[in-house]
Amino acid sequence: MAGGTVAPGFKWYEDLTVGDRWSTGAIQVTEAHVVGFAGLVGDFFELHMDDGFARELGFPGRVAHGLLGLGMIDGLKNRCDVHVRAVATLGWDWQFRAPILVGDRIHAEVEIVEMRETRRPDRAILVQAVRALKQDGTVVQEGRHTLMVRRRPGGDAA
After folding, report:
1. 0.90 exceeded by the pTM?
2. Structural domain boundaries enclosing 101
3. For the domain that residue 50 is a member of, what is the CATH number?
4. Rounded Cα distance, 119 and 130, in Å
5. pLDDT in tens, 45-87
């Protein structure tokens, strides 16, 4: 079965196939997000906190923390209309491609690129290619998310 656009709903491993894809909703990155994240993790690097410093480096203003962007993308995935029945994240292989600025509106595009069973009959592994884009279509972050997911009881497709 070739992949395609996935309809909204809760998805078991058996409901998905390589090539399936969907988009998340979007969120606007605010000053409160950047300041709150800095306080939470203790990263007060001037690029994130000082517009003048950021402009001296050639940016139009403060740049959001890369990990804040990744965290927001993961949050968008978790509250998306397509909800994969996850158990745990196993890893991220992630690249920061362009700055996310205060005021940017970001969303993600997700595609299943690998699927495999595990020794446990109730679990499986999905690898998702994820692209984070801002409002003008610029890819700001991208990579792969490896996720342990639940299998349908009995293992049968819907």
Report:
1. yes
2. 9-150
3. 3.10.129.10
4. 26
5. 999 999 999 999 999 999 999 999 999 999 999 999 999 999 9
